[in-house]
Design brief:
The structure holds two protein chains of two kinds. Chain A contains six helices and five strands. Chain A is an alpha+beta fold. In chain A, strands 2-1-5-3-4 form a five-stranded mixed beta sheet, with helices on both faces. In chain A, helix 3 runs antiparallel to helix 6. By secondary structure, chain B is of the alpha+beta class. Chain B folds into three domains: 186 residues, Aldehyde Oxidoreductase, domain 3, CATH 3.90.1170; 322 residues, Aldehyde oxidase/xanthine dehydrogenase, molybdopterin binding domain (Aldehyde Oxidoreductase, domain 4); 141 residues, Aldehyde Oxidoreductase, domain 4, CATH 3.30.365. In chain B, strand 16, helix 9 and strand 17 form a beta-alpha-beta unit. In chain B, helix 10 runs parallel beside helix 17, helix 13 packs parallel to helix 14 and helix 16 crosses helix 17. Classes of the chains: A alpha+beta, B alpha+beta.
């Protein structure tokens, strides 16, 4: 199949690249060296390859790269860095939510999608939100705790930013 | 409350600063932000892509194999078949693990040349400029088979006249235990209870499929960057390639899970062969489907218990038979069978014991290590049997166990004396107490509670003469480095070593760097298997760090003109205990020691106890360094209309000896038990005539976040383990009791027992129906 020129904006960086029409977004992202997007099954069973596509969590193995032409994509590595981690990433590290860490990027993307919509989720809502992300190490308990901790910290920091908790 | 926690014996609280604290693991943030680089994430300049051509038949002879059309495809650099590698075998035995039970000539060929023994057996390797070209090349390989009669059931395979997987017969290994006089013991019994239990094939289903890259350098050393539990496989790889051992270098990565499935060689030899033949870097990564087809499975077992008991619940004798399906090649089957044999009667005093176990070759997928390693399968049987004994005697399940639990000083099935704390009743009563009152039933929903106790070894079989090495050193600015060959599967193995050294040296955890899992550049630490790394490499690190501590304190003694007992090393400094302001930062102390030529690094070798093999006729002798004990309890709701089982509550209570990092220990208990709960309820690699019917994660289901309640982890610390600071091991033990606890809870809910895992809705409905008709 003839490659097609597409534009992907990944973690704020614009790529103009040619991909075959049957190439998945997962493989495209990994070829562009976004290797934090993990390949676990290529069938949408495990959620390890989840990314935010225009703000919505998707399994990148179930999206064709060409379908994402012109889209904004956020991977877990785009949320934060070692020096400046996102509160969800920080909470995952603190709570022991990453054991082998292979499911973690996709898990954090699902958590981010949840907290964007619902900043104060119940345990049941968290379980529902990550039910498409398989983890074989943790039994999910510390992941749920991490998302709860992140929600609390983000709420506290939003409160501080809004002035009610701070000087301004 | 029906069950109350048994009081613990008094334990001296340890005086520790770093060990025992729920600190953030040194590898945690990298994983959380997605910076950790896994084996499948590497690429190299000029890199080729490898693929494996596999058998579509489970039992066949290769009639014709023609790879010429694949070789002719533009972009294909190399196609290898068995003709290109005479006699290359995949030898799974480890140094020191000379398997007197492993028969000669049964090692798997690296590539099949003649006979195909299982579906998915590797036949040819391809390396091409692009992955899609490698895939096309596979399609151009021409093969014709003469199918051979296969054998797919271990019971059939044991019969005379059954197809033979490899000569002379299908018996891969046998073990026996002969202790006391079983006939006399049975004669003393008031009742004999007999049951047969079975467990299925299970897949490890780690999230990271097997992957790696390899390249050859200008010294002809082949470097293999790969996810493996065993960097010492470099020796087997060298043997398969016919090169000296110092020409193979494994650079392990942090693993995306292992659970025993990356204990045997996976992609390493294929990578090494392709790199050697092309002299270019090669990448090989399995898809999920190829992973499920290519790696080992947990052994299915059929286990029959005949138990003689007194009316008071005391066991007078037990006779146990075990049969495991080894699949097409032995791999670690003899040892998995041995672990099952040794724990066949569980953590109970059985003076008159007879165990006969057999591992049988079939044309099914091969089976090998999986967290729990035979001891988990044994527990599924003995803990259901204990509940059946309780039912037959109309006793409380805990009371029956209480009458038989081992205590410190008692001897187990092989006659080995239990030397550490044996907190069986302590853990079982705590798990049951935490479970609380039974949730009330509602309509067609029945609720049941159940629990299971267990014993599981940590550390390898003592006649393997196990060792580990670790190097610890201080830099002149007071920071520290650990070099230790330990592979980290995700359980926190490297962090644990840092926390131990931090405690000993007083260097803050954030000032440690650890280099791990490299067969050439880090001292060999042995396998991350057998719940051995905390015990073995933790002890090696403790030893090395303690030697540096001695050097530092001996110098500080002169500097402060104080006895060593009056000095403390903590928080990056040495100071006088009675006058903490009188201090030296480690950055200064290390420079002073270096100026005096004092050694600020140490390479330690830790040895487990060495023993001779157990007596092959009686199975008697010391066999493991020590054991972990604990219990798991669950509550289930069973919908009697649909057969569906819902887990309501789950509690694991284990004596871990010492929790080096409580968050990591809790993670082991919750994660290990999740695998055990899945084993009980949903996991089964279905195999029909040698063909896997559950080829991907769409069909092979593992628990999701909606299938499990949060497992409450109750961590007890007797401080009596053989590991650093009195630690035992918890990696495998966390899984072992979960599945039988579920089976017992479901029986408690339904009043009938399903003796074959997993407990699917179909089996539940059939059992209800059968009970109605009985």
């Amino acid at each position: 199949m003839q490659p097609k020129m597409i534009t992907l904006t990944v973690n704020g960086r614009k790529h103009q690249v040619a991909f075959s029409p049957d190439e998945t977004l997962l493989n495209a992202l990994r070829q562009l060296n976004y290797t934090d997007v993990k390949n676990g099954c290529e069938k949408g069973d495990c959620g390890a390859c989840a990314v935010l596509l225009n703000g919505k969590a998707v399994n990148s193995c179930l999206v064709l790269a060409c379908q994402a032409d012109g889209s904004e994509i956020l991977t877990n590595a785009g949320l934060g860095t070692m020096d400046n981690p996102h509160p969800i990433q920080e909470a995952f590290a603190d709570a022991g939510a990453a054991q082998c860490g292979y499911c973690t990027p996709g898990m954090i993307i699902s958590a981010k999608a949840l907290l964007d919509q619902n900043p104060h989720p119940s345990e049941e809502e968290i379980r529902e939100a990550i039910s498409g992300n398989l983890c074989r190490c943790t039994g999910y308990a510390q992941i749920i705790t991490a998302i709860q901790i992140a929600a609390e910290r983000m709420a506290a920091s939003a409160l501080a930013d809004s002035g009610q908790g701070g000087k301004q | 409350m029906k069950y109350k926690a048994k009081p613990l014996p008094p334990v001296e609280p340890p005086d520790l600063r770093v060990v025992g604290k729920p600190l953030r693991r040194v590898d945690a943030l990298g994983k959380a932000v997605g910076s950790t680089v896994y084996a499948g994430d590497f690429s190299m300049p000029n890199m080729l892509h490898g693929k494996v051509f596999r058998s579509s038949q489970p039992s066949a002879r290769i009639k014709r194999l023609d790879v010429s059309k694949a070789r002719e495809l533009p972009g294909v650099i190399c196609v290898l078949t068995a003709k290109d590698l005479p006699d290359a075998k995949l030898v799974t035995d480890m140094p020191g693990q000379t398997g007197q039970k492993r028969r000669a000539g049964t090692d798997a060929p690296v590539l099949a040349s003649e006979v195909i023994r299982y579906r998915g057996e590797p036949i040819a390797l391809v390396a091409a400029e692009r992955l899609d070209i490698a895939e096309q090349a596979l399609e151009r390989i021409e093969i014709e088979y003469d199918t051979l009669p296969g054998v797919y059931d271990p019971l059939e395979a044991m019969k005379p006249g059954a197809p033979v997987v490899y000569e002379p017969d299908n018996i891969v290994a046998t073990w026996k235990i002969r202790k006391g006089d079983v006939q006399a013991g049975m004669a003393m019994a008031d009742m004999i209870i007999e049951n047969t239990f079975s467990v299925p094939f299970v897949d490890h289903a780690y999230l990271e499929p097997e992957a790696g890259v390899a390249w050859m350098d200008d010294q002809n050393v082949i470097h293999i960057r790969v996810c493996t539990q065993v960097v010492e496989h470099f020796r087997s790889i060298a043997r398969a390639l016919g090169v000296p051992q110092n020409k193979i270098h494994i650079q392990g990565t942090l693993l995306g899970g292992g659970f025993g499935g990356k204990e045997d060689i996976t992609v390493e030899i294929f990578l090494a062969l392709l790199a050697k033949h092309t002299r270019r870097p090669v990448r090989l990564a399995y898809s999920r489907e190829e992973s499920i087809m290519a790696h080992s499975k947990r052994h299915p077992f059929i286990i029959t218990h005949h138990t003689g008991v007194k009316r008071n619940g005391r066991i007078t004798a037990a006779e146990i038979e075990m049969i495991s399906d080894a699949g097409a090649y032995p791999y670690l089957s003899p040892y998995v069978l041995l672990y099952a044999t040794v724990t066949a009667c569980g953590p109970y005093r059985v003076e008159h014991l007879k165990v006969d176990s057999t591992s049988v070759a079939t044309n099914n997928p091969f089976t090998s290590a999986f967290r729990g390693f035979g001891a988990a399968q044994a527990c599924v049987a003995y803990e259901q049997q204990m509940d059946e004994i309780a039912k037959a005697l109309d006793m409380d399940p805990l009371d029956v166990r209480r009458a038989n639990y081992l205590s410190t000083g008692d001897r187990n099935a092989t006659g080995q004396q239990m030397k550490s704390a044996v907190w069986l009743e302590e853990t079982a009563t705590r798990a049951l107490e935490a479970l609380g009152e039974k949730t009330s039933e509602c309509g067609l929903i029945k609720v049941g509670q159940g629990f299971a106790s267990y014993m599981q070894s940590y550390g390898r079989i003592t006649w393997f003469h196990d060792t580990s090495r670790a190097w610890v050193g201080l830099e002149l600015d007071g920071t520290a480095v650990i070099r230790c060959g330990v592979p980290d599967l995700g359980g926190g193995q490297v962090n644990t070593l840092c926390q131990i050294a931090s405690e000993v040296l007083g260097v803050p955890l954030e000032n440690f760097i650890i280099y791990s899992t490299d067969s050439a550049l880090t001292p060999l630490a042995g396998t991350t298997t057998a719940t051995r790394q905390l015990y073995m490499s933790g002890s090696a690190v403790h030893q090395a760090a303690s030697e540096i501590r001695r050097v530092l304190l001996e110098y500080a003694q002169l500097h402060f003109e104080q006895d060593i007992e009056n000095l403390e090393l903590a928080d990056g400094k040495v100071y006088v205990k009675s006058d903490p302001e009188n201090l030296l930062p480690l950055s200064e102390l290390t420079k002073m020691c270096a100026a005096e030529g004092l050694p600020l690094s140490n390479l330690a070798l830790f040895k487990a106890p060495f023993t001779d093999p157990i007596d092959p006729e009686t199975g008697q002798g010391d066999i493991f360094p020590d054991f972990t004990f604990g219990a798991h309890a669950v509550e289930v709701a069973v919908d009697t209309e649909t057969g569906e089982i819902t887990l309501l509550k789950s509690v694991g209570c284990h004596d871990v000896g010492r929790a080096i990092n409580p968050i990591a220990v809790e993670g082991q208990i919750q994660g290990g038990s999740a695998q055990g709960l899945g084993y009980a309820l949903m996991e089964e690699v279905q195999v029909v005539e040698g063909v896997i019917q559950t080829p991907s994660l769409s069909e092979y289901l593992i628990p999701t976040s909606r299938d499990l309640p949060t497992t409450k982890a109750i961590i007890l610390e007797s401080g009596t383990g053989l590991g650093p600071f009195g630690a035992k091991g918890i990696g495998e033990p966390s899984l072992t009791p979960a599945a039988p606890a579920v089976a017992n809870a479901v029986t408690n809910a339904l009043g009938v027992r399903i003796k074959d895992l997993p407990l699917t809705p179909e089996k539940v409905l059939a059992a209800i129906e059968e009970a109605k008709n009985a």
